[in-house]
Amino acid sequence: MALLLLPFTFSLIFIAYYLYQKLRFNLPPGPRPWPIVGNLYDIKPVRFRCFAEWAETYGPIISVWFGSTLNVVVSNTELAKEALKEKDQQLADRHRSRSSAKFSRDGQDLIWADYGPHYVKVRKVCTLELFSPKRLEALRPIREDEVTAMVESIFKDCTNPDNEGKSLLVKKYLGAAAFNNITRLAFGKRFVNSEGLMDEQGQEFKAIVANGLKLGASLAMAEHIPWLRWLFPLEEEAFAKHGARRDKLTRSIMEEHTLARQKGGGAKQHFVDALLTLQQQYDLSEDTIIGLLWDMITAGMDTTAISVEWAMAELIKNPRVQQKAQEELDRVIGYERVLIEPDFSNLPYLQSVAKEALRLHPPTPLMLPHRSNSHVKVGGYDIPKGSNVHVNVWAVARDPAVWKNPLEFRPERYLEEDVNMKGHDFRLLPFGAGGRVCPGAQLGINLVTSMLGHLLHHFTWAPPNGLSPEEIDMSENPGLVTYMRTPLEAIPTPRLPAVLYKRVAVDM
Ligand code: HEM
Predict the structure, then answer these.
(1) Which residues participate in the annotated binding site?
(2) Rounded to the nearest 5 degrees, what angle is found at the Cα of 46, between the Cα atoms of 206 and 380?
(3) Binding residues for heme
(4) In ligand 1, which atom is closest to the CA atom of 436?
(5) Which ligand 1 atom sits nearest the alpha carbon of residue 307?
(6) Is-above-0.85 flag for pTM?
(7) Is 80 a domain residue?
(8) Residue 8 pLDDT grade (very low, low, confident, very high; cuts 50, 70, 90)
């Protein structure tokens, strides 16, 4: 009997709480919430599209209730600026779900840390040390190695007589390049040998990533409805086991690096070496070092591969743009060498192609949610302490009020008017803005531009046989990061002398 009354009691509590919030605060408008679940069942799976639709009805700032948690979504340039610049510090906390709280040991890393002394310290380590221009440049050979390895692997597959006329799954090559890049950058490890075989540590690494995703997903259902949580208990044991497994692998890699440093003298440039050498200076706990290393893996791997996949889809749909980018590459690089990063400054069109892809298809269209650490006003509405705030950067970047023909893929727009995409121009925010702006933005831009440049210089890309460019499915998969719903398939045709398709391997 008591169990049967539970939903009723919680409905009453919810209604009372909701009415209290409504009367006490001037909350942004939005769809009417239901007791207990709020708007959870009205939200369509591709959330940023759903929120953009709601913004058309209710305005550029809306309230969406995830159970009893208020989520505020802003969808235009002015409000994005107000939230990320003027109210930056009040909105700089993070909402940690039960699983992200477990994974990050209650925010001892960077991504899930609330704003405060720990956050400021760790952010400083990232800005001054991990992502300094000097370290970015020192790690360039790794990026160029991986991008050329990707080209070699595509060349092998598309020139294999067995594959004649067949399309390739583009994501497979982009994903491998992004994976090798980030594991080498962070851990100084290429888990995959030149034959494409993954070693034992790499397999363990992949299994840990997959298990983390599984554990996270297992809780999602009850995350926002506290009274349902007893039905989905946090699997303490499974999380503890996962954490221990992750720590064991990371510790063994850290030890290898410490030994190598002791033997060889000088420190290497990988993030793991940087963090271990700086541990005392910045007073970093082992949990923080491990957390930071895994932050880089989670934040830096899929985002870059996804961005390039969307860009390639747009280039196949828009052969004019593809050809124009190739003409620029031929003029600047020619047919006797391959692209390197210092060429970027002479390739404004290529850079614009990358930017245009990140405008139309930001891989994290709602960024990562921020949380208010005090009562704050945005757009004249109240945002009570503890609310989540999302900036719909996807909607902002398609707003006809600030973009001419926003749905057109037209890189030329940036040659006509320079638009900064690292948080200074609030029309274009693929990396966010303000204090929590993506610290890996420049690295991400370099990787995306380099991958795109190589793919376009080395190959001409066409849709699979039987498919016209217009038929490429440009819809998104639901999720925090936005994969293409139908992974892109395409037919590459080599366009440079065969000697230029060799991997430029470096040992670092
Ligand atoms: C195209 C590639 C990338 C895109 C579009 C992207 C986008 C973003 C966005 C939107 C955020 C959230 C900002 C906010 O909360 O306000 C973020 C945070 C973050 N990104 Fe990136 N990112 C990319 C690549 C990378 C790379 C390569 C790394 C590192 C190797 C990285 C590391 C991080 C970290 C650590 C955070 C958390 C920052 C914080 O909470 O203070 N990202 N990124």
Answers:
(1) 438
(2) 115
(3) 438
(4) 41
(5) 1
(6) yes
(7) no
(8) low
